[in-house]
Batch of 2 targets.
Target 1
Amino acid sequence: MPYIVISTQIRVENGPTVVGDEQSDPELMEYLGAQLTAQLGNDFKEYRSLDPPRVLLDKLELKGYKVIAMAGIGQTCIWTLNKPPEFE
């Protein structure tokens, strides 16, 4: 089952939003308007979109994804989404 996790800092709730990692589907990331970026000091890359989480959640719903969990961790909001098999 395909899962995706998106997150944003509470203080920047209008973006940017992290929507994937180096192994994420490039076509989906392009659809979301996300760019692969590397933060100084990190040894990994992540996809970021300038859109706020609400816009990305709407776009993902149109692709068949459903929110299955949401959490606040410190200053970060995180949503986990799943795409049921019937949408593949």
Target 2
Amino acid sequence: MTTKFHLGWFLNFVADEWNGTWGDGGRDFTGDFYVEVARALERAKFDYVLIEDKLMVSTAYGDTMEYDLKHGVNPKHDPVPLAVLIAAGTSRLGVIPTMSTSFYPPFLLARLCSTVDHIARGRFGWNVVTSAEDRSAQNFGMDKLYEHDERYARAAEYMDLVSKLWESWEPDAVERDYMTGVYANHKKVHTIDFEGKYYKSRGPLNTAPSPQYRPTIAQAGSSPPGRALAAQHADTIVSPADSVESMKAYRDDMHARMEAIGRDPSHCKVLYLASPIVADTREEALAKRERWLTDPMYVEYMLAEISSITEIDFRQFDLDKPLPEDLTTNGERGTLAAFVGKDRTKTLRQLVTGSGLSSHTPFCGTPDEVADEMGEVMEQVGGDGFLLTSPVLRLNRRYLTEITDGLVPALQRRGLVRSEYTTTMLRDHLREF
């Protein structure tokens, strides 16, 4: 039996491949390039594009901004205006920008989500993050970030609050009755009078209910508190693609957590990060991977990237020795665990060139070969799909075309992914199969 699965795309609103031969050279940030990307993804019938974000220039690698700025790791633009632009330039593709519960006031975020879901005609989502960097906290008047588990306790209360704000208007509160002269029925709009440990809000939201009523919620929950939050609220979860066994174990755990609180697990789709490399022949694809992963600038770029995410200075470690066993962080613990993996005998260089921060599952070959491999992995895992991204975390038109016009048609021929949209709103895309 064919296991049909979903496809999403993981995007950074940074300069495209400015130092390569297939990009725009980073000429501008009008968003035009990303609207082109979104239209290509819509043509390939992807469920959504998820736009990552960070709120700082990192000094984690080498205790300096040099490498972050040199490689363009964290200089990036706000994803929400781009999401609006993408929504206006497409008609079916879902768009999910990242916004942090640590720094957005809850009322402001709830109102923003509702507004953009109207503009996107029900195709808007919110990637819920707690932020994991002290440098971000310092941009908002704090000395350092809250401790990891407290961040998630605050996020859980934050989610309760914004959920009540979205529900402060009953679905049929807007009557628009010409005869009675009533726009909205005041008996169907309610204050929420929320008062928790961390947040307080009167409500109601002063925006009318959006097409989805609440945005589609995405989250990358890896740690126990993160998994609990995702089980409660997420419509789609982002997870590293480590091994088939760990992928299946993660999905099974999330399903068990959802069932324990009365949620239907089929209402939440787990998408695994992957970076397929395709070419006309397997030899060409392997040569391409080797060329990318052995570039010294790639190694430095990736170490600067993982340092900024985990708040660990990986410049202090010998590239050709295994990492210390006792690495801990107040940053993104799930990302750290995915990066170091279970085989602690690997050197730091092997970790960087073996994962690309996105996948330990080596999808590399012709489009047909990779399509078969992806289908086999999904069959063993049980679902639900892949969140694709460029292996070097910086996109160019060539890689995009290889995926949308090479790999995806091969997947469609096998009945593994959709060939047409049958729904119009994002949550419905995810629940279609």
